[in-house]
Amino acid sequence: MSSSNLSNQGAAMGSDLFDVITQQDQVKGDVLAKNQKLLFDLKREISLSSKNNFTLDRDVKIIDKKIALLVKNRISLEDVLQSGEALDLNSKTTTIKDKSKREFYGQLFYLLQNNTHYIAQLAKLVKVGEIDNLLQCVMFTLYGNQYEEKEEHLLLSMFQKVLQEEFKEATSIGSLLRANTALTRMMTTYTRRGPGQQYLKQSLIKPLQNITNERDMNLEVNPSTVYEAYINDYETKTGKPSPLKRKVSPEECAQNPQVKEIIAPRIEKLISLGDAFLDSIIGSLDSVPYGIRWICKQIKELVEKKFAPNVTQSQTCGLIGGFFLLRYINPAIVTPTAFMLVENILPNSKKNLTYPAKMLQNLANNVMFGGVKEFFMEPLNVFLNKNRDRLNDFLEKLTKVENLDENLNMDQYVALGKSTETNITITLNEMYFVHSLLEQHINVLAPNPDDPLRLILSDLGPAAPQLSRAENANVELKLINRFADQQAESSNPDQIYTETKHLLFNVLREMATYNKQVPQSQQITSFAAMFQVAANAKNLELQDNLKKIVVNMKILIQKHNYAHNDQDMIGKMKKDLVNEFFNFDAHIQKSNSDLEKLKQVLAAIQEHNVFLQQQIKVYEEYLNNVKASYDTADSSKKKDKKKDKKDKDSKTTTTTTSGSSSPKSSKKGPFKFAYSQLEKDGMIIESEVPNDKRSMIFFNFTSEQPGIFDVVLMYRNVSVTEIRLQLDELLEMQSVGKVEYETDFIKLNVNLLIFLLNKTFVTGDNPVDKKK
Amino acid sequence: MPLREFKIVVLGSGGVGKSALTVQFVQGIFVEKYDPTIEDSYRKQVEVDGNQCMLEILDTAGTEQFTAMRDLYMKNGQGFVLVYSIISNSTFNELPDLREQILRVKDCEDVPMVLVGNKCDLNDQRVIGTEQGAELSRKFGGCAFLEASAKNKVNVEQIFYDLIRQINRKNPVGPSKKEKKSVCMLL
Ligand SMILES: Nc1nc2c(ncn2[C@@H]2O[C@H](COP(=O)(O)OP(=O)(O)OP(=O)(O)O)[C@@H](O)[C@H]2O)c(=O)[nH]1
Ligand SMILES: [Mg+2]
What we know:
Distance between the termini of chain A: 111 Å
Structural class of chain B: alpha/beta
Largest sheet of chain A: 4 strands, antiparallel
Mean pLDDT of chain A: 79
Strand content of chain A: 5-15%
Bound molecules: guanosine-5'-triphosphate, magnesium ion
CATH topology of chain B: Rossmann fold
Largest interface: A-B, 57 and 52 residues
Low-confidence stretches of chain B: 174-182
CATH architecture of the domain at 192-405 in chain A: Orthogonal Bundle
CATH architecture of chain B: 3-Layer(aba) Sandwich
CATH superfamily of the domain at 192-405 in chain A: GTPase Activation - p120gap, domain 1
Shape of chain B: globular
CATH superfamily of chain B: P-loop containing nucleotide triphosphate hydrolases
CATH class of chain B: Alpha Beta
Mean pLDDT of chain B: 88
Oligomer: heterodimer
C-alpha cells in the first residue's frame, strides 16, 4: 500500500469523523467494558472446562470398557494401566520448541478455522472411528471459544456447507436427517457446548423434577406389564397365588378391570406431565441459543428450496422437530444424568421418562399413537390433538432468527477493545491427528497444486505419530494468517463490511483517547494523521488495522459496489455503529443477566467435573487393587479379579468384606415345609416328582448368611438334593419380570418364594409352622 | 407344554428398518412412514417347533443420541436382532461395536443373536454385498445371518424363529438328562 494513496484517502474523510465516539457515554461505557471483561473471562473458563469434561467423560468410558475386558481376561493389565495414566490433561501444558514448526501449525489452524470448507469436506471423508475425535477437535478446540461470535459464525458457516451437501444428496423428505451421519453427530456435539446445555437446564429441570423427585411414581401404561406387576404385587403381598391367569395376550390384559383402573389415572397424569414439558420448552423460546435456532432455520430454508412446492408445513415442522426435539431435547429427557440435569436417577424414573419423550416425539413427527404400533398409547392422542398447532407454531418461531451476518452485529460491543489476535488451546495429539487426516485426504481437499493447504502441509512435513498419554500436553497456539491479502478478496462482502466497521470503531476509540491529551489544534481528523500517529508511536497493530481498513474499503467499493466513494462508505459505517452500540442501558442490563446465567453454567460444569474426577479415583483404586492382587496371590488370581469387579460394580469401592471370609454365626432354621403344602399354596408351578412320592417329601430351609438360603429336599427323612437360593437373584428376576425359578426338577413361583423367605427368615414367623 | 417367555431386543442404526421388521412380524403390515423410535414394546404369541412361545419384542432407538439407554435393555434381553441396511455402509460398520457392548453387558461370549441385512428388495441400491454380511457373521462367532425385506416380507419370521431356537438351545426347557441324575432315586 503506497503512502500517497493513503493520504488521498485521508483527505476525503472530513472532520466529523469522531462523531461516533462523542456520542458515547463514558461512564456507562466503562461499566459495560468492565462487565464485558468479566464475561470474556467467564466464557473462556467455560470453554476450557467443558472441553475438559468432554475428554474426561470419554476417558472414563474407555477405562470402564477396558476394565470389563480385563475381567474377562481379554486384555492385559498393562493395557488398562496405560489408559489410566495422565487422565487429567487440563493441567499439563507445553510449547513447541521449533519456532518455524510453531508458526506453520499456527498458519494451518488459522486456515482451517477461517476456510470452513476444509473441515466440512473432511467430516464426510473420515472413518467411523475417527469422526468423534475430529468433532471434538473442531467443536471444542478449533472453534473452542464457545461464546466468541466470530468463531461461532465460522463454525455455523461450516455447518451450512455440510447441511447443503446432505440436502443435495437427499432423494426424499422422509429420509432426510434420519440416519446417523457426520452431520447429525456434528449437530449433537454442537448442542453439547455451553449455550446449548444452558438452555436444557433452563427449560427441562422443572418438568423433569416432576418425575424424578417421585420415588413411587409409576407411569407404565403397557397393559401386559401392568397386568404382570399387578399379579406380582398381589402374590408378594399376600403370599397367595393370584387367581389371574399368567401370560395372556396384550388385548386380554387391557380388558382386565383392575388393569383398566390402574391405567386410567396414569394416562391423565402423563398428559399433564407432557403439558408441563411443552409449556416449559415453548415458554423459553427466547433463550434457545442463536446457533441452534439458526440450524433450524437452515433446515427449513433448505427443505423448502429443494422440495417446493410439494412440501407441507407439517413436513417442514417434522424435520425441524427431528433435530430440535429428537436429537436435542428428548435425549436429555430420557437420560438426564448424562446431561447434568439430574444428579441421580431412580430406576422407576428412567422408564417413566420415556413416556413424555415419546409423546413429544410423535407430536413433532405428526404421527398419531396406536394403529399398527403400540395400541395402548392411543388414549394419549388427546395430548397430540390439543398440542399439535401449538408445537408447530413454536417450531416455526424457532426459525425466525437473523442470518449470520446480521446476527454478528448484535453483540459486537463484546468484541470491541479486544485484540484481533486469536489463540487456541490444543493438545499435541489433536494437532498431529488433524495433520495426519489432512495428509490422507489432501487430494480431495486440495486438488489444486497451489492450494494454500498444500503449501502449508509441505512446509510442515509429515505428521508426527500419536504420543502416549503421558507425553501428550496442551499447547497455546497463536493463529497466523499467512495469506492475508488473498483472504480478504475471497471472503463474503458482508463479512468484510462488518469486520471493517469494527476495526474502524477500534481505531477511532484509540484516537479519541489520543485527542484528549493534545490541544485542539493538533487533534486528529483524518486517516493520514492517524497513520502518522501510529507510525510515531511505533504501534504496529494500529498500523496494521488502519491498512486493513483502507484495503477493505477499496474492495467493498470497487468489487461489491457497497458505496459510491470513501466518504459515503464511512458515513454508512458511522451510522451503523451509532445504531448498534450506544444503547448502553440495554447493553448493561443484558450483560448483567448474561453474567448471572454464565456463572450458573460454570458452576454446573465444575460440579460435573468433580463427579468425573471421583469416578476416576474409584477406577484408580480399583486398578491398584487388581495390581496388588496380581502381585500377591497368583494361585487365586481369578477369584480376586471377580471380587474386585463386584466391588466396582456396586460402586462401594475398596473395603467391602465379602461374607464368606468371616462366616457369621447367624444361622437360622432349618424350617420345614411339606411338599403338599407348597403345592397347595401355588408355590410349586411344575414338577417332575412322581405323584405318589409327593406326600413323603419335605423341604428344609436354612440360612447361614443374610440373603442366602439353602434348601434341602428330604425324602423319607433322607436328604436327596440341595438348592441354593439368593435373595438378590430372586429380586433381580422379579424386577425383569421372570416369575419362574427353575431347578432341575421343579419350577417355583418367584413372588411367593420371596414372600416366604421374607416371612420366615426376616420377620421371623414361619407361616407353615403357624398353621400346624 | 406351558407358555415360555422370550425377551428379544432389536438393535441397529437409525432408519435401517427395525420398526418395519418388528411391525411386519407382529402385525403383518409394512410401515412406509419413517417415524424414529424412542422405545416400543410388542408382544406376540407364536408356535415354534410345536411349542407355544410368548415373545416380548423391544424395538429400540437407532438414533445415536439415545445410546445411553442401551445398557438397560441389553441387560434384560435374552436374544438380539442386529440390523443393518444393505444400502448403507455406515449402518453396517456400526454393528461390531454394538455386538461388543452386548457381550460386555451380558458378560458372556455366547449370546443368542441374528445378524440381519434389511431392505434386500432395494437390490439396485445395494452397497453391502451378501458375502460381506456373511463374513461379518463369521467374525461374530458364526452367528446366524439373514438378508431380509420388511417391505416384501422376506425372511421376517425366520429372524425371530431362529432366535427363539437359539435361546431354546442355550436354556433348554425342562430338565436335561444329566441334571436329572440327582433326583433319579425319586423318579
Ligand atoms: N424398501 C424398503 N424400505 C424399508 C424396509 N424396511 C424399512 N424401510 C423403510 O425405511 C424407513 C425407516 O424404517 P424404520 O423401520 O422406521 O427404521 P428404524 O430402524 O426403526 O429407525 P429408528 O426407529 O430411527 O431407529 C421407513 O421409511 C421404512 O418404510 C425394507 O425392507 N425395504
Ligand atoms: Mg424404529
